[in-house]
Amino acid sequence: MDMSFTYIALLLGTGFIAxxxxxxxxxxxxxxxxxxxxxxxxxxxxxxxxxxxxxLQSITGIIGFRKAKKIDTSDIVPVLIPTLIGGVVGSIIxxxxxxxxxxxxxxxxxxxxTIIMLIKPSIISPPPGTIPHKINEKPSAWVALFIAGVYGxxxxxxxxxxxxxxxxxxxxxxxxxxxxxxxxxxxxFTTLAISVFIWNDQILWVPGLTLSxxxxxxxxxxxxxxxxxxxxxxxxxxxxxxxxxxxxxLLSD
Length: 253
Hints:
Layout: H1 5-24, H2 29-38, H3 43-67, H4 76-94, H5 103-119, H6 139-154, H7 159-170, H8 175-199, H9 205-228, H10 231-251
Helix pairs in contact: 1-2, 1-9, 2-3, 3-8, 3-9, 4-6, 4-8, 5-7, 5-10, 6-7, 6-8, 7-8
Subcellular location: Cell membrane
Pfam families: TauE
Protein name: Probable membrane transporter protein
């Protein structure tokens, strides 16, 4: 595939912005998937290639949040179990079905989150001092994380919103810790998805790695911002990104 200077700049720029968005909210793949398809990739190849950047940005985010002690390691395994099971199901579906099948689910989830944040924002952004629940105390969290895993394994765009709804909405993590655990979940099912895509020879590595340079830089910057930002600022960033994601889903083909 021709990698002209214009395409390289496009991938680096969209990757950088997507890395910030995905680390603090979700929906960054609404930028990177079209960027890859502009290069002439079919939707399934772009979907697979996009995961390279997502994988590396997730590792970057996890390292940053872990250094700041914002990842609750005791909760990682219980949270990952339903997410990984869903990720296996979703990634298998992704190899044989068009990504457009889950557009209504994505749109419904994002519009629903927008409404919730307007009417009762404390559901997504718990008050300071809220003690998180354990996953075995909230069966609804297991179901929500499984759905997030299926969607994330199927198509990356917008999965962060579903994970935030599961982690903050049902388990009551604050937004910083929610984003930290979200990155762990994303890394887990992206690793599974990439394995399936490699098996089916659906990844174009040069564009994928070029994109990942931007996503890694964006994620690194976003972690620093998240650790210093006021919780209200993070909440409003999430709200704006949810609106943008909803608009992108509505306008996409």
